[in-house]
Amino acid sequence: MTEQEFKKLLIDTISVDEYEKREEVVSLLKTCGVVFEKTGEFAKGKVWNQRKENIYLSIMPEKLAQLESHSTYIKRMCERIYPVNKEYKLAEVVFKPGIPTDYEEVSKDVLFEDILKRIIEKIRAAKYVIWIAMAWFTNPKLYEELLKKKKEGLTIEIVLDDNEKNRNADFKLDKEFTTYWVKIESLYKNTMHHKFCVIDLRTVIHGTYNWTKTAEYNKETINIDCNGDLAKQYADEFVKLKNIGRLSVASHV
Fold first, then answer.
1. How many domains does the chain have?
2. Residues 117 and 90 both lie in one domain
3. What is the pTM of this model?
4. Do 86 and 200 share a structural domain?
């Protein structure tokens, strides 16, 4: 379990506990940094060769006393969720002053209905960046939503498969947005078959749903993941596709 996973599990566990001041504790923990310290000191217990591990919870100095007022409860909850393993045993939970951190809520939705509506909701909520990689993009409703975000000043880039449907859509994406046409060159006619959208490097929309008019009437699935780590993985793939698009253009000049 990583430090970030431990922090999330601690917050989630306290959120549903019966502790009278759980909301206050959750609010404090969301700004805490979490650091594991694996020591070389042997722990007392039945497991041979097991060593001590400490957990440091750091919070802004002005809130340290408030956090420490719940120390007995927080330590008990840390012990409850600490993963059992043969190598280390939880020894101490230490509270100390430190730099506050942002808490990242992680969520995942799987949708089979109202897909277009939810995509539009996420586009409208975007604040900074929208990156789209799509095999087919012919839906004028989504095009219009992106135009609105462009007028708000957002950076919008699109990777498209270089095919006839995209080239002959009712609108010209490459006239309004930075667009990279990807042609997969091989012995066969292959397709850039991705269908994903990265929003603010924080949210990913991905699944079977192409941004087309006909997709509204198909049986489709999308996942909406609010997960910074996952978003960065998709962002890395988007950058790779952009570079393929640049090479495709260069090879035809």
1. 2
2. no
3. 0.61
4. no
Residue type, 17: D
> Distance between CA 137 and CA 171 in Å, rounded?
10
Alpha-carbon gap, residue 59 to 68, rounded angstroms: 10
Q: 41-75, pLDDT tens digit by residue?
A: 999 888 888 999 999 999 999 999 999 999 999 99
The C-alpha atoms of residue 230 and residue 233 are separated, in whole angstroms, by 5
Indicate whether 172 and 125 sit together in one domain: yes
**What is the end-to-end Cα distance of the chain in Å, rounded?**
51
DSSP structural state of residue 157:
E
Beta strands in 98-247 (DSSP E): 107-111, 129-134, 155-161, 178-182, 195-199, 203-207, 222-226
- Tell me if 114 sits within 8 A of 145, measured CB to CB: no
Strand partners, 252: none
Which domain range does residue 138 map to? 107-251
* Count of all residues that appear for the chain in the document: 253
* Residue showing tokens 């808490």: 103
